[in-house]
């Protein structure tokens, strides 16, 4: 018998996860969307607020949307105070989550490098590092040599088209196993009495006198005292049934994995300029995110030329990936706001709460947003960390612009 | 990679085009007369339907003309394209 | 072991290869798998979780076990040995589920090809060849793509005849005939792996892999075919299914059809004595072929009560025992199969087991159409009860499946199906031409039984996914945990997620889940089929877009001079801009201080050609610009120049630059270097979609002009010397005007503008003349070249912001202290309305200010933040803003910075602190204009 290759095995799941439920006629809270955010919200509603008569409605299989499709990067090194607040809250929860949920989440704090490729990238990176430190978020600026020390396979030669001029590094950042996270929350919430109803698509929100009264679904009508939207890419479609317009656009976002490879990549590397984000998961596969499709679409797949560009970019930074193979590509539908920050809070309809617009960043926020959104639903007012992400900001102009300092202009 | 029928050049690869979002969102006649809410709607709120969507494309690597398309966002099927100023056709 | 004759291998040539350190030989025509079997190598892999020995299981890309590491000629991870064509010098090793990347760079080349066709036929088996033949007969443009080195597909692995000749010969002749047609392209070694919208398919062609070290260096190793097809025929065949029973992972357990292929195509017997375990007639043909090839077939075990009498008779003729109504309950052996346990169906659970000595157990649970591409195309699948598997149902694109790919397994049916599909596919493009259907013998068929799982008390040794080591017991544990969806079970167990992406295990997993839940398989569906159908290398997908070709490099007309004179370059968008020109012994700081001093005290010149330039021409050009710029442009006089700012509708600064009025109906707009394309797109969008009635045309002329900024108190003198015909006096040539003149003998447009505050001229000539102009300037011996490093300092000393550095998409012109550039007269311009929103009217917005560190030698890092207090409180620390630009100034004799600071315009004179490392650096807030605030120097 040969020894197992490193990381080729994963911890066992528990013998008991959750039971599929039949919908009851009424719940205190109905959560629309059984992804990571819906499950975390359900869990914290029950755990922090004692609200357990809760149903999570999922149109497909639980956590089968973006939760099953993301590249599992967790970090909190965002530029603006508002973002750092909620993402750092999430990261702190991540750090105790395996114990909290009694579930192996494969949470691995292997650090994230965000590479800089131009002088403006360097300025923006230092700005972000300094902001992070003052916000209590761990962050360092590394020169190319230090980048190489953290991740020896990154190409730092000055002779490439866009040389690496340095990187920000957040040591506490990392990855987790997305399914395990979803199932950990589901199992813990189920133990507290939350019900999960799969194959149950919400076809309409029921509103009476400006107050939500329940939902219509493909499995019948369900009354609800409060309804919390966690429908990601499909939020616009659901909200529209209550006459609510949201500043969201839904786009396909693709990702891919390679075959299992012996460990070569010890951290997570992201590059906005060369557009790569890649890590090596526990079993050994390279997990890589591709770009977003420009056109709106609800198709859970993107265009192939985006993958081709992605591979060219990856090989610029990681020449040793040349003969790795793409094993599987897939797409999710992400809902993007004009300022690339989420919308979390109250809606124009009483008892209806919004959690959407997370774009490409939803996974890392999972426990944090679950915590804050549950608070928002329970108290009918935004959690302080969620307050800056109100729908109202688009009227006042107080955006939380996380597109970053774009432009390479002079 | 969609095959997009540019009304000026004929069918071309999606990579030749630039996307412009929802069509028929006119710049307001008199922005100064709008409330903050109304101005915010113009700035930031666009339809996001799952189904037929009237949207703008620019054939940026071809004739550089903007035009409109009716595309189903659930299937990516393009029902038709029309030039700027032409009325929106009825989706087939 | 190798048979003495037969097969499509060239026994006259011997290829030497190494596997796990052992030397072996094989022949051209072998795969690594067939050569290993010919050398009686049983164990080819170790399983990933349980460390169990594994042998070759299949003969094609669906192989779940024999996934090997190529070591030489160049390391490549995780290739199925069944897809590796043998070549001389191949070195490979077995794996335990993980491959290895090479440490060094891949020397090979990769490429991509675009192709368009009327009909794309995927798969050159009997159905595909028939389809291509029928389509080609109409004159349609046909591409036939097949993943094997030679056409024929399943015909290569059987002894079936077509049109009275051996199937492989018919395939070769048909392909040759197709290739003679000018409109037909036959792609060998080409796997179509992705099917996207609008009939866009992608394939990878392996061009040199099979040549090993002999591969010519100039030839692309692999290339991607990007195919746009009017219609597609998927003749992708079928994969044989395994059956779950105890010990079904032992080396020696193999798909029956695979064994037949090894014997027929490769002349290899994968064992000595075999038991066949099958629930369909196809495996009988395999048993007979194998028996005829010299394999001792001990028995055929079939759970069906009565297979066709004809098959029974043929087995009897060869002395093969037929155990109908029986199943194999276990394969036994130490490290490989040595015996097979058999039981009547009726008494599986109550024992009644007999044992047969055998080193080979050939299984066939039936056949699954290869529906991957059909599913990728958006087509739906339906569960066909009769054959117990998924078949294509309704398509959403112009595609149809033919032959085994849609569940038609018998050869005559495949040929007829392909012919029909090919003719239909071509009919959209060319007039129909009737084609005869190739003939083949109809085999006797009894109804197959969808048989998946041999019942047992303990399922710990019944494997469903060999590569992921997933057993029936694992699947049952998942359903026992409450999971009802196949997707959940797959993720709980990892079944179907390995290198083979569940090609043999996917439907078996579904069947086992259905069995556990007590529901029909049809109700469960299956997991989604995703691209790529087979793994494809990163390098192939990256193609040529690497290294220097990763992104275009743009250089100015003066570039070669900059290179020759030692400039270091900065990437600005795609442009290479001179950054600074160090002299021997100078670092950047010293060079920039010297260049700055030259500009302030003497004469210096910069290549400014990269600034975007757009001709705005037409009777309404002025009105058009009035709508886009925050200030008034239509009032500009011909011969004059104005600085302008553009905002997005949200009021945030988008770009800035100068506007020159060339003629009544002609403006020339300059943009920042990085934003040139975006500004042109922006202008076109507004013009075409909002104001189409405006009579304006826009043309990018960035690359038509070379631009030199001649800066410094001595610049007038230098220009006068170069342009004797130009009146350069301050009254003749006032600030913010331009003149046509001959400069250095070259026709030029000279602008009196300044981005430094010094007397300056911007000289524009056609790109062709750029180097001549620049050389003439430098030949005066009076002028110091400077780069973007110095340009940044000079402009910052004057408080001129750089869009994208001192702004970040959240800054209005008012925030920049540039209210003067925002027209109060114009009723509207893009962005105006947003200035009166609640947040943009706040007094404590971040505003551009200057900063002077109290220690004039301390240089603040750009990106440093500012706080109000001299000691840091616990995080989160309230931040007042950040440093956007920071330099050492020769003119000021000290360091300084620009910063965006909350309420900054009201803080002049205030002391703030900048946390740098562990220190808090005290700084004084000042006006952002630090040098020559009166503007005394611009006229020289």
TrEMBL record, chain A:
Q: Pfam families recorded for this chain?
A: DAO
Q: Where is the Rhodanese domain?
A: 29-73
Q: Where is this protein found?
A: Cytoplasm
Gene Ontology CC annotations of this record: cytoplasm
The record's keywords, sorted A to Z, are: Cytoplasm, FAD, Flavoprotein, FMN, Nucleotide-binding, Oxidoreductase
Q: Which GO terms describe its molecular function?
A: nucleotide binding; sarcosine oxidase activity
The cofactors it requires, by name, are:
FMN; FAD
An example Gene Ontology biological process: tetrahydrofolate metabolic process
Quickly give the catalysed reaction.
Answer: sarcosine + O2 + H2O = formaldehyde + glycine + H2O2; sarcosine + (6S)-5,6,7,8-tetrahydrofolate + O2 = (6R)-5,10-methylene-5,6,7,8-tetrahydrofolate + glycine + H2O2
Instruction: Tell me its EC number(s), please.
Output: 1.5.3.24
Q: So what family is this one in?
A: Belongs to the SoxB family.
Q: Which NCBIfam families match?
A: soxB
Under the heading PANTHER family, the entry gives: FAD-DEPENDENT OXIDOREDUCTASE DOMAIN-CONTAINING PROTEIN 1, SARCOSINE DEHYDROGENASE-RELATED
Quote the protein name from its UniProt record. Sarcosine oxidase subunit beta
Automatic annotation (TrEMBL), chain B:
Q: Which organism is it from?
A: Nonomuraea rhodomycinica
| Stored InterPro entries | SoxD, SoxD_sf
Q: Name one GO molecular function term.
A: sarcosine oxidase activity
Give the protein name, as stated in the record.
Answer: Sarcosine oxidase subunit delta
Any Gene Ontology biological process:
tetrahydrofolate metabolic process
Q: Which domain of life is it from?
A: Bacteria
Pfam families, alphabetized: SoxD (PF04267)
Automatic annotation (TrEMBL), chain C:
- Cross-referenced Pfam families, in alphabetical order? Fer2_4, GCV_T, GCV_T_C, Pyr_redox_2, SO_alpha_A3
A biological process (GO) of this protein is: tetrahydrofolate metabolic process
Ranges for domain Aminomethyltransferase C-terminal:
846-932
In this chain the GCVT N-terminal domain maps to 558-826
Q: What region holds the SoxA A3 domain?
A: 462-544
GO MF terms on file? sarcosine oxidase activity
Q: Which family does it belong to?
A: Belongs to the GcvT family.
In Swiss-Prot or TrEMBL terms, this protein is called Sarcosine oxidase subunit alpha family protein
Protein species of origin: Nonomuraea rhodomycinica
Could you read off the lineage of the organism from its UniProt record? Bacteria, Bacillati, Actinomycetota, Actinomycetes, Streptosporangiales
């Amino acid at each position: 018998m040969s020894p197992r290759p490193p990381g080729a095995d994963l911890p066992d799941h528990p013998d008991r996860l959750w039971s599929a439920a039949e919908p009851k006629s009424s719940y205190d809270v109905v959560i629309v969307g059984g992804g990571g955010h819906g499950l975390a919200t359900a869990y914290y509603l029950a755990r922090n607020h004692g609200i357990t008569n809760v149903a999570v409605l999922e149109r497909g299989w639980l956590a089968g949307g973006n939760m099953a499709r993301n590249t599992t990067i967790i970090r909190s090194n965002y530029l603006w105070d508002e973002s750092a607040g909620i993402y750092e809250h999430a990261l702190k929860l991540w750090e105790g989550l395996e114990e909290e949920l009694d579930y192996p989440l494969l949470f691995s704090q292997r650090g994230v490098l965000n590479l800089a490729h131009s002088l403006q990238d360097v300025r923006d990176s230092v700005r972000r590092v300094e902001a992070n430190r003052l916000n209590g978020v761990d962050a360092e600026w590394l020169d190319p040599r230090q980048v190489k020390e953290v991740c020896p396979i990154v190409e730092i030669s000055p002779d490439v088209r866009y040389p690496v001029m340095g990187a920000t590094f957040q040591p506490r950042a990392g990855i987790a196993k997305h399914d395990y996270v979803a199932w950990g929350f589901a199992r813990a919430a189920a133990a507290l009495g939350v019900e999960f109803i799969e194959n149950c698509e919400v076809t309409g929100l029921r509103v009476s006198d400006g107050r939500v009264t329940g939902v219509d679904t493909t499995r019948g009508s369900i009354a609800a005292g409060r309804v919390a939207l966690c429908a990601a890419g499909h939020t616009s479609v659901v909200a529209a049934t209550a006459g609510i317009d949201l500043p969201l656009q839904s786009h396909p976002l693709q990702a891919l994995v390679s075959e299992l490879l012996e460990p070569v990549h010890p951290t997570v590397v992201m590059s906005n300029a060369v557009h790569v984000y890649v890590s090596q998961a526990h079993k050994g596969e390279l997990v890589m995110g591709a770009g977003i499709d420009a056109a709106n679409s609800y198709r859970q797949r993107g265009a192939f030329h985006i993958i081709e560009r992605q591979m060219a970019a990856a090989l610029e930074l990681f020449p040793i990936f040349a003969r790795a193979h793409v094993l599987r590509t897939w797409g999710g539908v992400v809902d993007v706001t004009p300022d690339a920050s989420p919308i979390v809070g109250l809606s124009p309809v009483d008892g209806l709460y919004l959690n959407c617009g997370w774009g490409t960043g939803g996974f890392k926020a999972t426990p944090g947003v679950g915590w804050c959104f549950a608070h928002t639903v329970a108290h009918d007012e935004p959690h302080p960390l969620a307050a800056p992400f109100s729908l109202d900001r688009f009227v006042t102009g107080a955006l939380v612009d996380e597109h970053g300092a774009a432009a390479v202009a002079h | 990679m969609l095959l997009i029928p540019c009304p000026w050049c004929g069918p071309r690869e999606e990579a030749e085009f630039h996307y412009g979002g929802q069509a028929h969102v006119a710049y307001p006649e008199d922005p100064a007369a709008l409330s903050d809410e109304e101005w915010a709607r113009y700035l930031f709120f666009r339809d996001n339907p799952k189904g037929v969507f009237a949207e703008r494309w620019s054939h940026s690597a071809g004739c550089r003309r903007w035009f409109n398309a009716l595309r189903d966002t659930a299937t990516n099927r393009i029902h038709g394209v029309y030039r700027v100023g032409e009325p929106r056709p009825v989706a087939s | 072991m190798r048979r003495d004759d037969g097969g499509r291998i060239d026994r006259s040539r011997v290829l030497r290869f190494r596997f796990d350190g052992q030397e072996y030989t094989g022949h051209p025509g072998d795969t690594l798998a067939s050569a290993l079997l010919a050398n009686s190598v049983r164990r080819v892999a170790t399983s990933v979780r349980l460390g169990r020995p594994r042998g070759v299981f299949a003969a094609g890309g669906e192989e779940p076990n024999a996934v090997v590491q190529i070591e030489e000629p160049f390391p490549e991870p995780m290739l199925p040995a069944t897809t590796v064509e043998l070549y001389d010098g191949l070195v490979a090793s077995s794996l335990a589920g993980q491959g290895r990347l090479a440490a060094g760079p891949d020397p090979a080349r990769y490429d991509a090809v675009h192709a368009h066709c009327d009909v794309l036929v995927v798969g050159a088996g009997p159905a595909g060849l028939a389809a291509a033949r029928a389509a080609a007969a109409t004159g349609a443009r046909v591409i036939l793509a097949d993943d094997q080195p030679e056409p024929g597909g399943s015909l290569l692995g059987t002894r079936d005849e077509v049109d009275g000749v051996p199937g492989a010969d018919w395939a070769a002749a048909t392909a040759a005939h197709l290739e003679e047609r000018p409109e037909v392209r036959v792609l060998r070694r080409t796997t179509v792996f992705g099917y996207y919208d609008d009939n866009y398919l992608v394939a990878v062609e392996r061009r040199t892999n099979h040549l090993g070290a002999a591969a010519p260096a100039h030839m692309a190793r692999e290339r991607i075919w990007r195919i746009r097809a009017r219609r597609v025929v998927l003749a992708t065949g079928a994969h044989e299914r395994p059956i779950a029973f105890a010990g079904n992972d032992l080396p020696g357990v193999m798909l029956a059809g695979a064994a037949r292929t090894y014997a027929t195509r490769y002349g290899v017997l994968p064992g000595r004595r075999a038991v066949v375990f099958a629930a369909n007639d196809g495996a009988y043909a395999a048993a007979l072929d194998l028996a005829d090839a010299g394999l001792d077939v001990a028995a055929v075990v079939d759970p069906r009560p009565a297979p066709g009498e004809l098959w029974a008779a043929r087995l009897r003729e060869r002395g093969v025992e037929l155990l109908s109504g029986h199943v194999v309950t276990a394969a036994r052996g130490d490290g490989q199969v040595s015996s097979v346990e058999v039981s009547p169906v009726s008494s599986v659970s109550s024992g009644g087991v007999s044992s047969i000595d055998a080193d080979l157990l050939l299984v066939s649970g039936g056949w699954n159409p290869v529906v991957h591409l059909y599913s990728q195309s958006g087509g739906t699948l339906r569960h066909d009860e009769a054959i117990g598997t998924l078949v294509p149902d309704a398509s959403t694109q112009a595609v149809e499946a033919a032959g085994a790919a849609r569940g038609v397994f018998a050869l005559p049916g495949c040929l007829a199906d392909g012919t029909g599909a090919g003719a239909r596919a071509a009919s959209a493009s060319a007039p129909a031409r009737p084609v005869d259907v190739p003939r083949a013998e109809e085999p006797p068929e009894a109804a197959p039984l969808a048989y998946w799982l041999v019942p047992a008390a303990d399922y710990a040794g019944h494997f469903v996914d060999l590569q992921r080591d997933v057993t029936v017991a694992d699947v049952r544990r998942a359903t026992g945990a409450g999971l009802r969806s196949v997707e959940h079970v797959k993720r709980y167990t990892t079944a179907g997620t390995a290198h083979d992406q569940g090609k043999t295990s996917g439907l078996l997993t579904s069947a086992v889940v259905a069995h556990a839940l007590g529901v029909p398989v049809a109700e469960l569906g299956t997991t989604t089929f995703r691209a790529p159908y087979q793994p494809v290398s990163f390098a192939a997908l990256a193609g040529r877009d690497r290294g220097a070709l990763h992104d275009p490099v743009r250089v100015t007309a003066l570039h070669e001079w900059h290179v020759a004179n030692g400039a270091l370059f900065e990437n600005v968008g795609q442009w290479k801009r001179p950054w600074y020109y160090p002299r021997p012994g100078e670092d950047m700081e010293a060079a920039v201080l010297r260049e700055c001093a030259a500009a302030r005290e003497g004469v210096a010149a910069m290549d400014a050609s990269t600034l975007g330039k757009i001709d705005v021409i037409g009777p309404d050009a002025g009105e058009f610009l009035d709508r886009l710029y925050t200030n008034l442009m239509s009032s500009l006089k011909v011969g004059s120049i104005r600085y302008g700012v553009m905002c997005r509708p949200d009021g945030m600064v988008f770009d800035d630059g100068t506007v020159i009025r060339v003629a009544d109906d002609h403006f020339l707009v300059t943009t920042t270097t990085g934003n040139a394309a975006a500004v042109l797109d922006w202008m076109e969008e507004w013009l075409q979609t909002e104001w189409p009635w405006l009579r304006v045309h826009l043309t990018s002329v960035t690359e038509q002009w070379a631009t030199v900024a001649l800066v410094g108190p001595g610049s007038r003198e230098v220009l006068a010397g170069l342009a004797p015909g130009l009146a350069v006096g301050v009254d003749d040539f006032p600030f913010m005007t331009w003149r046509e003149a001959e400069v250095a003998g070259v026709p030029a447009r000279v602008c009196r503008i300044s981005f430094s505050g010094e007397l300056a001229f911007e000289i524009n000539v056609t790109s062709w003349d750029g180097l001549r102009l620049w050389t003439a300037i430098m030949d005066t011996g009076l002028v110091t070249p400077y780069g973007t490093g110095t340009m940044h300092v000079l402009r910052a000393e004057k408080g001129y912001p750089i869009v994208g550095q001192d702004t970040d998409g959240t800054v209005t012109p008012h925030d920049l202290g540039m209210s003067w550039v925002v027209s109060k007269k114009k009723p509207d311009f893009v962005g105006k309305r947003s200035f009166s929103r609640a947040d943009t009217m706040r007094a404590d917005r971040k505003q551009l200010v200057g900063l002077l560190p109290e220690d004039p030698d301390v240089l603040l890092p750009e990106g440093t933040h500012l706080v109000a207090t001299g000691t840091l409180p616990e995080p989160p620390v309230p931040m007042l803003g950040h440093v956007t630009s920071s330099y050492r100034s020769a003119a000021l004799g000290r360091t300084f910075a620009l910063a965006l600071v909350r309420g900054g315009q009201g803080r002049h004179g205030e002391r703030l602190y900048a946390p740098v490392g562990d220190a808090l650096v005290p700084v004084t807030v000042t006006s952002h204009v630090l040098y020559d605030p009166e503007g005394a120097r611009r006229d020289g």
